[in-house]
Amino acid sequence: MLVLLTATSAFAQSLPTFGGPSMTRASEQASRTRRAASVPDGMAITSAGGDYRVQLGLLVHEDSRLAWNDDQKNVTDTFVLRRFRPSVRGRVAHRFDFFVNPDFSNTTTSVVQDLYIDTVFNPAFRLRVGKGKTPFGLERLQSALNLTFLERGMPTAVAPNRDIGVQALGDLRGDVFSYLVGVMNGVGDGGSYSRRTGDGKEISGRFVVRPFNVHATHPLHGLALAISGSTGDQTGTPLRFFQTQTLRQRYFSYANGVTNDGRRERYSPQVSFYHGRFGGFGEYVRSQAPVRRAAVREDIAHQAWQVAGSWLITGETATDAQTGVRPHARFDPAAHHWGALQVAFRYQALKVDDEAIALGFASADSSHIASGWTAGVNWYLNDNLRCTSNFERTVFDHGAGARPAENVLAFRTQLIF
Question: Which structural domain, as residue segments, surrounds residue 65?
Fold first, then answer.
C-alpha cells in the first residue's frame, strides 16, 4: 500500500538519503548512503516496506549581477534565472536508485543535467550508469544547493563537468576512505557532454581519505585529502574557451581550426576541512593535451587553483554536504530570530600555457592569465531559503594587459524544496 508523505523537517531527518547526487561519501556531495537527509525532502511517495519510492524536489536560483566601474559599458547589468531544476529521485526494488535532474533556466536550453541509475550492492560498491558529474573536481562535485559562493571557482573551468558513462563508487571503513572511478566519453576542460563523433574514451577517478574521522572529537575531524586524475584520447575534439565565473565574459579562446590532437591528461590534488563554524577547501587542477593547428602541434597546459574559507558568525556548523547549513533558529522577526550568517573569502587564478599565445593557437584578443578574489556573505533564513551576496574582482595578465579588470557585485536568492 502506498503512503503519501509530506516533508516536514522532523520527518526528513528520519529518512535515508538516496538516489540523487548525495548518495555516498565516495564523491563527497555526489554520493552518500548512510546519513539522514537534513533538508526538507519535498513530497514523496513510498511503499510500506520502503523498497519503492519516488521523491520530488526543486532548486531555484534567482540572480542579480551588476558590473562595478564599467565605464565602457562592456557588460549588461541584468537579472537572471540561473537555475530552475525540478528533480525526481527514487528507488526501485530496493537495490536500484535513479536520479533525473533537468534545468529550465534561461542560462540553459532545457538540458538534462543528470540522468542515471545506480545498482546498490553495499556501501562499499555502487555501480552507476548514465549521465552525471565526472569523478574529478572537488568543488564541481559539491552540490549547487550548498555552494559557498554564487559561482564555482576557476579550477572548475579546467576540470570536466558532466559526461555519460559507467562509474563505480563506494566507501570503505565508513567515512575514512572513499573512491569514485569511471569510464566516460570524455569532455573538454570545463565542458559537459555533447555528442561524440570519435571512438576515444576517458578514464577518471577520485580517491579521498579522512584520516581523523574515526574520532568524532579529534581537532582535525572533518579534514579530507583527495587526489583526482583522468586520461583519454580526445583527438579531433574542439577546445573550449575560458570566461569569468560570474559575468561570463570571455577572456581566452582558441583560433579557428585548433583542435585536440592526442591524449589529454589531468590531475588535481585537493584538500577540505569542515569543523565547527569553519569551512574551507583548496584545489589545483592541471590539464595537458597535444594541440594542433595545420602543421603546428604542441602540448598545451591549462592550470588553475583556488583557496577558500568561510566562518559562521552565528555559531552553526559548517558543512560541504548537500544538506547545507541549518540555522539554529529560523527567520522570525517577531521572535527576534534572524537565521544564520556566514562570511566567506576566496582567491583563485587560471593560466593558459604561454605557448598557446606564442604559436598562434589563441585568438588575437585573448588574455592567458586571470586571477582574482571573491568576498561573500550568506544569509540562511531557514532550511529552504538562502540569500547570498558576492563582490568579485578579476584581473588579466597580472594587470599588464589591455583588458580592464572586471568588478562585479552579485546577489542570489535560493529556494530549495
Answer: 58-85+145-416
